Amino acid sequence: MIFECATRDMCFSLHLTVVLQCLAICEHQNHVPQISALWWQDTQLRYPDVTLSFSNMEHVTQEPSIDCEQCDDPIMFKVIAENETEFVLDFESMLAILSVAYEQGAISALTDEWWLTLEHIYGQPRIRT
């Protein structure tokens, strides 16, 4: 599944597998609640090309949060898009893409408990279906 995304400066295409790699990094770094092994197994069956081994991730790296007045994202990613364009993907956008991917049937649902725990951690509602 490909997502067409845009910033003020550019448009780019982003494959869902890259977003799933960002999610795996978030989970590994304890930025999000733990996700069940069954969810990851189902995801790996749907997307055999997704790289969940951190040493093999070529298109995603974690970046320090950007200090700005408009953003409060706890984690940012440097991502290489489909056309080899490099850009920064923020936490909110990652969650929005996951929500849309679920709505489109591309991934299984993350549990309500997962979303509620995420909201509790960051003290504000996050995007979800």
Query: Low-confidence parts lasting 5 or more residues at pLDDT below 50?
Result: none
Got a strand count? 5
Strand order of the largest sheet: 3-4-5
- Helices, by number, come to 4
The portion of residues assigned to helices is 25-40%
Largest sheet entry = 3 strands, antiparallel
Radius of gyration: 14 Å
In angstroms, what separates the terminal alpha carbons?
Answer: 18 Å
What series of H and E elements makes up the topology?
Answer: EEHHEEEHH
Strand content: 15-25%
What is the count of distinct domains? 1
Mean pLDDT over all positions? 77
Principal-axes geometry comes out as: globular
Judged by helices, strands and strand pairing, the structural class is alpha+beta
Keywords: Plasmid
Give an account of the 3D structure.
The mean pLDDT is about 75. The protein has one domain (about 1-120). Helices cover about 35% and strands about 20% of the residues. The two termini are about 20 Å apart. A hairpin with a 4-residue loop joins strand 1 and strand 2. It contains 4 helices and 5 strands, in the order ββααβββαα. The radius of gyration is 14 Å and the shape is globular. The strands form 2 sheets. The protein has a 3-stranded antiparallel beta sheet. Strands 1-2 form a two-stranded antiparallel sheet. By secondary structure, the protein is of the alpha+beta class. The longest helix is centred in the first third of the chain and has 13 residues, at about 15-30. Keywords: Plasmid.
